[in-house]
């Protein structure tokens, strides 16, 4: 079975629009990097206007649940992860609630859900329990650069501790970020090493594989058996290009760390269908058994489905 570990936001108009509005409206630097031709917003009013504009524009572009299912089927994907995030304490904009994710997961046996947790909230640990135990979600998503915290901040620790106790993974942004309001290296792999050293039984997925610090990320993954990397937000077709920075992923991911790489599309950010991204993975110089691991077996094992 092919697993798209992190496909994107829930295909529900408001949830989809709120997710897109954060990336292309609220985050200074992201709109300019991915939106094309924009100058950096300089005032709160400019940022607010962009956020509202993107939200309104994307309300009508969310795929229906049927379209989403067809898109997965076209890629041969039997299971996909959908998610939300929570960072209102710092970015000051709403996101879809965990209940929205849980409701969608209940309607489909082809998806798993990951909840958003805001580590600034006093009851963050309780929110983890609600997401996993009450709503039946499969893990939580944290994005330190959006939440204004380093990954090893004590506020994050409350979330890590509950996820470790419950045996569910934390999906943590790693690698460079394009935000003009956050340090570019908040997602450096050295923080992942610190987190999993403090929480040795925590299952941690380093989203985006720590690019451009891929070599460091793979070394951290090698040091800790409970660390995985995913391919989200990057085109696999670029991995074999000279000086792409992905050399160590292909080298170690094809050998010693073959069990720790997860395919993930985040197709909305890339503007490419999951089917095309699956094809790009299949074109990589991987051994046949490793290909199967990257495209599904590793994710199923992490989720406790094999």
What layout of secondary structure does this protein have?
Layout: E1 2-9, H1 13-26, H2 30-35, H3 44-58, H4 65-74, E2 77-83, H5 88-91, H6 98-106, E3 111-116, H7 124-134, E4 140-142, H8 144-147, H9 154-166, E5 170-173, H10 189-198, E6 204-207, H11 214-223, E7 227-230, H12 247-253, E8 261-262, H13 267-270, H14 274-282, H15 288-302
Helix pairs in contact: 1-3, 7-9, 10-11
Describe the structure.
This protein has 306 residues and is an alpha/beta fold. It has a single domain, classed as Alpha-Beta Barrel (TIM Barrel), CATH 3.20.20.140. Helices cover 46% and strands 12% of the residues. Strands 1-2-3-4-5-6-7-8 form an eight-stranded parallel sheet. The N and C termini lie close together (11 Å).
Summary tags:
eight-stranded parallel sheet, TIM Barrel, single chain, alpha/beta
């Amino acid at each position: 079975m092919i697993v798209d570990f992190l496909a994107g936001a829930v295909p529900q108009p408001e949830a989809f629009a709120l997710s897109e509005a954060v990336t292309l409206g609220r985050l200074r630097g992201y709109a300019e990097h991915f939106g094309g031709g924009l100058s950096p917003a300089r005032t709160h009013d400019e940022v607010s206007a962009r956020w509202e504009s993107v939200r309104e524009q994307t309300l009508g572009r969310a795929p229906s649940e049927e379209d989403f299912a067809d898109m997965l089927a076209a890629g041969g994907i039997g299971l996909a992860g959908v998610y939300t995030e929570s960072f209102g304490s710092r970015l000051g904009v709403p996101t879809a609630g965990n209940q929205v994710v849980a409701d969608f997961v209940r309607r489909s046996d082809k998806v798993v859900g990951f909840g958003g947790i805001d580590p600034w909230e006093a009851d963050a640990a309780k929110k983890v329990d609600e997401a996993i135990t009450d709503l039946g979600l499969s893990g939580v998503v944290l994005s330190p650069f959006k939440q204004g915290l380093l990954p090893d901040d004590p506020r994050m620790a409350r979330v890590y501790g509950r996820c470790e106790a419950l045996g569910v993974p934390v999906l943590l942004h790693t690698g460079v970020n394009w935000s003009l309001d956050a340090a570019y290296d908040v997602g450096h792999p050295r923080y992942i090493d610190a987190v999993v050293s403090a929480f040795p039984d925590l299952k941690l997925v380093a989203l985006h594989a720590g690019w451009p610090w891929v070599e460091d990320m793979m070394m951290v993954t090698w040091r800790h058996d409970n660390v995985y990397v995913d391919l989200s937000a990057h085109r696999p077709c670029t991995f074999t290009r000279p000086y792409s920075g992905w050399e160590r992923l292909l080298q170690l991911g094809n050998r010693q760390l073959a069990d720790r790489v997860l395919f993930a599309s985040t197709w909305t950010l890339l503007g490419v269908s999951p089917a095309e991204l699956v094809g790009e993975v299949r074109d990589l110089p991987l051994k046949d058994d490793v290909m199967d691991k990257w495209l599904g077996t590793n994710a199923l094992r992490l989720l406790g489905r094999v």
